[in-house]
């Protein structure tokens, strides 16, 4: 996995695989957030596959798909709540950029 740490408890990554979920668990990740809508590319791993791997590993899985850099107030609120819970979070999309954008949006909200 190619992970970028944005805070002590928040990391972002490009698209992950089912096998990456086990590695994330070993690294102490408690929540995986998918910011990538299904169907962006033919080689994309469906969110349902990642969800099943997370359930098997005991990791919470949350889907907050973003179209490009656009996000909703609800997505910001949901992610901020997850961050405020203090769990170690890994968010992913195609490149990690959308996940970073959404994380940055949470930093200005109350």
Helix content: 25-40%
Write out the strand line-up for the largest beta sheet, numbering strands in chain order.
1-2-5-3-4
How many domain units?
A: 1
Distance between the termini: 31 Å
CATH homology-level superfamily: Protein tyrosine phosphatase superfamily
Largest sheet: 5 strands, mixed
Q: What low-confidence regions span 5 or more consecutive residues with pLDDT below 50?
A: none
What's the order of the H and E elements? Answer: EEHEHEHEH
Query: Which of globular, elongated, flat, extended, rod-shaped describes the shape?
Result: globular
CATH topology: Protein-Tyrosine Phosphatase, Chain A
Provide a concise account of the structure shown:
By secondary structure, the chain is an alpha/beta fold. Helix content is 38%, strand content 18%. It has 4 helices and 5 strands.
């Amino acid at each position: 996995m190619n992970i970028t740490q944005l805070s002590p408890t928040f990391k972002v990554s490009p698209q992950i695989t089912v096998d990456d979920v086990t590695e994330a668990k070993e690294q102490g990740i408690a929540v995986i957030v998918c910011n990538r809508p299904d169907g962006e590319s033919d080689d994309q791993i469906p969110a349902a596959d990642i969800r099943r791997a997370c359930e098997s590993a005991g990791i919470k899985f949350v889907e907050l798909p973003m179209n490009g850099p656009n996000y909703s107030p609800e997505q910001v609120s949901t992610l901020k709540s997850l961050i405020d819970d203090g769990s170690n979070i890994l968010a992913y999309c195609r490149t990690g950029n959308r996940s970073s954008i959404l994380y940055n949006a949470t930093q200005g909200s109350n």
